[in-house]
Amino acid sequence: MKIALIGYGKMGHEIEKIALSRGHDVVCRIDIDNPQDFDSPEFKSADVAIEFTAPTQAYGNIMKCFKNGVKVVSGSTGWMSDHCQEMQDLCKDGSNTLFWSSNFSIGVALFSRVNTYLAKLMNSYPMYEVSMSETHHIHKLDAPSGTAITLAEGIIDQLDRKNGWSKGILLNPDGTVTGTSDCKPSDIRIDSIREGEIAGIHEITYDSSADFIKIIHFAKDRSGLALGAVLAAEYTVNHKGFLRMDDLMDSLS
Predict the structure, then answer these.
(1) 137 FRET partner, CA 20 to 30 A, in 53, 67, 148, 157?
(2) What predicted TM-score, i.e. pTM, was given to this entire model?
(3) 211: exposed, middle or buried (C-beta count within 10 Å: 0-12, 13-18, 19+)?
(4) How many CA atoms within 13 Å lie on the side-chain side of 134?
(5) pLDDT digits (tens, 9 = 90+) for 108-120
(6) Euclidean distance between the first and final Cα of the chain, in Å?
(7) Active-site residue identified among 136, 162, 202, 217
(8) According to the model, what pLDDT value does residue 19 have?
């Protein structure tokens, strides 16, 4: 498989290492210094592009992939909520292909299914109040994380007493605290922490006056995300349309 990398930072390097170990070729690497390479023969020869950039760049990058007829796997967050329907429309006839996920970790995908099942159980126990927190490295620009939002949406789909989420407290890299712990009773509060080089921690807590139940996913490093992105690319090569993590997980099970 021929892969183009869009975003050649720490994640891009980790994805490249895993892709090469699985026998794939990286034919093009695009970063902030060479955007003109979207028009290069090397980029156009790619079977799939893997895109991990900033929220402000992701949409434009994906549109360039579509323009050049290259399928794309994107893990960029902070932009999809404004463009989800547009992406689905652009991919619905199979002329464009986008595999998007807020998190490509297989562990997070499994955690998400546990989260959904637990929320379904908790629908019958209103004495438990749900809240969430996520912790990431200091370079992450969006808060709460896209993964936290996806997990919250999974809870909202199952928990009748919740119909939205709200930003809670944000502990900034410089130690200052912004945001608020106040939120509507019908919202799930998501607190965020930006600290060090933490790859990602997501915690979901159901608290009552008697006890609490907590589930946690702790990413030790970026390798799980990178492997998942390469697995998604391998899946995308043989599929069309708007693809999600559930599609990949169903194919692996």
Answers:
(1) 157
(2) 0.86
(3) exposed
(4) 24
(5) 999 999 999 999 9
(6) 23
(7) 136
(8) 98
Show the beta-strand stretches assigned E in the chain.
2-6, 25-30, 48-51, 71-74, 97-100, 129-136, 164-171, 177-179, 187-194, 200-207, 212-219, 241-243
| CA separation for the pair 91, 89 (Å, rounded) | 5
Whether 140 is catalytic is: yes
Integer Cα distance of 173 and 137 in angstroms: 8
- Among 224, 150, 161, 157, CA closest to 190: 150
Residues 215, 204: contact at Cβ < 8 Å?
yes
Q: Long-range pairs for 12-15 at CB < 8 Å and ≥24 separation?
A: 12/52, 14/222, 14/223, 14/225, 14/226, 15/50, 15/52, 15/226, 15/229, 15/230
Q: Is 239 a catalytic residue?
A: no
CA 47 from centre of chain = 22
Distance from CA of residue 173 to its chain's centroid? 21
